[in-house]
Design a protein that fits this description.
Blueprint: H1 5-20, H2 25-31, H3 36-49, H4 51-60, H5 71-104, H6 107-131
Helix pairs in contact: 1-6
Length: 133
């Protein structure tokens, strides 16, 4: 399967723009405007329609079921795994958000993080371009 060169160029261009764009306080303020509920609903919808999640449920749970297992057992297992996943990922988001807000107050760290992200995107673009030849 050959992937078009446009994808590599897009990654490199996006990384280049991150290297060139000045980091200001306006960027930080614009990022905090969105409401948490919006992000939660968006992530929830993506999780429900994600084919990898659906395939996981289809591949993993039948291992624990027999022909005598009631359908309610599958539902209970799915709810159990989903609730634990929700709790774990919620903790990750809350901790990550707290750390990001504290670090975003330091302009020099925002600058370093933005530049490192730009360099990383350019590196991924080159790596993909040369690995798919």
């Amino acid at each position: 399967m050959r992937i078009s060169a446009g994808r590599y160029i897009y990654l490199c261009r996006f990384g280049w723009n991150m290297l060139r764009t000045p980091v200001s306080d306006k960027t930080r303020e614009a990022a905090s405007v969105e409401k948490a509920g919006h992000h939660f609903r968006q992530a929830f919808a993506v999780g429900l329609t994600n084919p990898k999640v659906i395939m996981f449920f289809m591949a993993f749970f039948p291992v624990f079921m027999t022909s005598k297992t009631k359908p309610a057992t599958l539902g209970a297992m799915m709810i159990h795994v989903s609730l634990f996943s929700l709790m774990y990922q919620t903790c990750l988001v809350l901790v990550g958000n707290t750390i990001a807000r504290r670090l975003s107050r330091i302009r020099k760290l925002r600058l370093i993080a933005t530049r490192l992200a730009g360099i990383t995107l350019i590196g991924f673009g080159f790596k993909l371009a040369f690995n798919n030849r």
